[in-house]
Amino acid sequence: MNDDVRNIVLGVVAAGVSAAIGWVARTYLWKRRLRRKQVFFGLPDNSESLLVVNRGAAGPEFAVMRYDVFALLELAALIKDCNAHAQILPHDTARQGFGERTEFCVGGPASNRRMAAHLSSLLPGVRVNVDAEPGPDRGSFQVGSERYRVENGREEYALLARLTADRSQNIRPVFLFCGQTSITNQAATRYLARNHERLARKYGNGSFVLLLKVINSQAYGPDVVELADDVTRAAQAPLPAAETSRSSHRAS
Question: Where, by residue number, does the polypeptide cross the bilayer (predicted)?
Answer without folding.
Answer: 6-29
